[in-house]
């Protein structure tokens, strides 16, 4: 497996994990606005995972321990702390996609940067 495929597999896993996490997070939130935001983000992350699956030709499974960790983090430190962590991860994802020379990577990078802005707006 070449370097590009390894990167794509890691990104595919990251997108799948984010989709599952955001759906679970949506169920735990009290604010209707925040639930709607995370439902929408979950759908987009799921789409990203699907796009990457076409490139990798491999089906990945979500890592549920990350979802459980994030929910525990939410319970221990609150939503603001979790949202700050999510913003950092979304920005990191945008940077990783920007470094790739695939046609679909540019759009996903833009989406990831937009996701970071959306979650950051929830903090205000």
Account of the 3D structure:
By secondary structure, the chain is mostly helical. It has a single domain, classed as Up-down Bundle (Ferritin), CATH 1.20.1260. The protein contains 5 helices and no strands. Helix 2 runs antiparallel to helix 5 and helix 4 runs antiparallel to helix 5.
Topology summary:
Elements: H1 3-28, H2 32-56, H3 64-77, H4 79-98, H5 103-122
Nutshell version of this structure?
The protein is mostly helical and about 120 residues long.
Q: From the coordinates shown, what is the CATH architecture?
A: Up-down Bundle
Class derived from helix and strand content: mainly alpha
- The Cα radius of gyration reads 14 Å
What share of the residues lie within helices?
Answer: over 70%
Counting DSSP H or I runs of 4 or more residues, the number of helices is 5
How much is the average pLDDT? Answer: 95
CATH H-level superfamily = Ferritin, core subunit, four-helix bundle
Oligomer: single chain
Number of domains: 1
Q: Write down the overall geometry.
A: globular
Main sheet? Answer: none
Terminal-residue CA separation: 44 Å
């Amino acid at each position: 497996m070449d370097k590009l495929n390894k990167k794509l597999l890691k990104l595919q896993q990251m997108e799948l994990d984010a989709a599952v996490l955001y759906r679970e997070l949506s169920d735990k939130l009290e604010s209707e606005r925040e639930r709607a935001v995370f439902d929408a983000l979950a759908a987009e992350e799921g789409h990203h995972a699907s796009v990457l699956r076409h490139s990798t030709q491999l089906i990945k499974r979500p890592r549920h321990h990350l979802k459980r960790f994030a929910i525990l983090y939410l319970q221990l430190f609150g939503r603001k702390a979790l949202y700050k962590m999510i913003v950092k991860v979304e920005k990191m994802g945008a940077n990783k996609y920007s470094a790739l020379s695939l046609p679909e990577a540019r759009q996903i990078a833009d989406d990831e940067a937009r996701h970071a802005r959306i979650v950051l707006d929830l903090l205000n």
